[in-house]
């Protein structure tokens, strides 16, 4: 079996690759893995260092928009797990072109090549942000897509292309939509690693607006296990939400971090709210639970403590990345 992982040098894709090669997914125990990654600012070979010597891993630096390369790599592939994307909302507010290119055109390039190569399963990793913002309750998969940022609009475009390749061509595509991931190896401009690394350095953390925006937190290990369930047994043409079950306002999360890292409220720097800032995300993951037996298993307190410990112990990983991090406000 051969698995093509796009974006496998990023935060979530590298976790999936490390888990797979480490034997966490018995159904894929003997799989050969091809990682295709452009190594943008968010991609990092160091994220794969623990599996770099595994003879089953082949790393290819390249762009998912490169049709010739993608076509060549797709030959003989059984399963595609597509993580590659421009993923930071704040960057999409400054300029959306790269988001449209990678997230929409790149996904289309992969879908076309997967169709030609007759791959057995294509898992398109998407986001809860495609649904927009919800004040109460949780979104089921049938909810209309109402993306509000250029990032989520580009992701929604790629979701619709994935659906269309199933409807039009019968390509066995599944789409997963997850909530906010956390864990080790996340680029230190996303909220959680930015705040942890700032506090480790004795620096203030920038909190958007009134801090009342609500996010559901999902440990990257649970997310990748959900993706794996979909890769193995998801029904072609279906969408699956993957949630973590821990909703917190950004202020509540910040207070948890201050406590864990021995800092006080003076370390919080309120900044003007993000443009178009979605107030609340909440996915209903009843479908993947009922159909595929998914449930989040990482306790949030333990997951957060482990994540903080990882950043504390891996300064050599994140310190060189901090100058490239986009910090607004
Ligand atoms: N991080 C989250 O909380 C979260 C939440 C919901 C959905 N997602 C989705 O999960 C996926 C992975 O997210 P992440 O947080 O690991 O992102 P990331 O930004 O950490 O990693 C993205 C990876 O894709 C690579 N890449 C970017 N453009 C490319 C291109 N044109 N060709 C090849 N490779 C390219 C980058 O080099 C990087 O390694 C994304 O599709 C994202 O939309 C993430």
TrEMBL record:
Single GO MF annotation: dTDP-glucose 4,6-dehydratase activity
Domain of life: Bacteria
Signal peptide bounds: none
SUPFAM superfamilies xrefs: NAD(P)-binding Rossmann-fold domains
Protein name, entry field: dTDP-glucose 4,6-dehydratase
Cofactor field: NAD(+)
Record InterPro entries: dTDP_Gluc_deHydtase, NAD(P)-bd_dom, NAD(P)-bd_dom_sf
EC number, UniProt record: 4.2.1.46
PANTHER family per the UniProt record, alphabetical: DTDP-D-GLUCOSE 4,6-DEHYDRATASE-RELATED
């Amino acid at each position: 079996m051969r698995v093509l992982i796009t974006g496998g040098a990023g935060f979530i894709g590298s976790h999936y690759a490390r888990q797979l090669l480490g034997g966490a997914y018995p159904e894929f125990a003997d799989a050969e893995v091809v990682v295709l990654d452009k190594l943008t600012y968010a991609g990092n070979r160091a994220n794969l260092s623990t599996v770099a010597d595994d003879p089953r891993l082949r790393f290819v630096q390249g762009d998912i928009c490169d049709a010739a390369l993608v076509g060549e790599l797709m030959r003989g592939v059984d399963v595609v797990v597509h993580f590659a994307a421009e993923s930071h909302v704040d960057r999409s507010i400054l300029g959306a072109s790269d988001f449209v290119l990678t997230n929409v055109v790149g996904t289309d390039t992969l879908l076309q090549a997967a169709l030609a190569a007759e791959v057995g399963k294509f898992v398109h990793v998407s986001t809860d942000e495609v649904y927009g913002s919800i004040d109460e309750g949780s979104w089921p998969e049938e909810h209309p897509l109402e993306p509000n940022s250029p990032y989520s609009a580009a992701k929604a475009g790629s979701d619709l292309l994935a659906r269309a390749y199933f409807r039009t061509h019968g390509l066995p595509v599944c789409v997963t939509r997850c909530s906010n991931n956390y864990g080790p190896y996340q680029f230190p401009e996303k909220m959680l690693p930015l705040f942890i690394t700032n506090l480790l350095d004795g620096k203030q953390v920038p909190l958007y607006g009134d801090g009342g925006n609500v996010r559901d937190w999902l440990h990257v290990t649970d997310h990748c296990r959900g993706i794996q369930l979909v890769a193995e047994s998801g029904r072609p043409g279906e969408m699956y939400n993957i949630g973590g079950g821990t909703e917190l306002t950004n202020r509540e999360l910040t207070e948890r971090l201050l406590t864990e890292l021995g800092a006080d409220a003076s370390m919080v720097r309120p900044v003007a709210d993000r443009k178009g800032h979605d107030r609340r995300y909440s996915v209903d993951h009843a479908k993947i639970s009922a159909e595929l037996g998914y449930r989040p298993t990482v306790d949030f307190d333990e997951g957060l403590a482990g994540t903080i410990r990882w950043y504390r112990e891996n300064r050599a990983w994140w310190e060189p990345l901090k100058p490239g991090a986009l910090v607004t406000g």
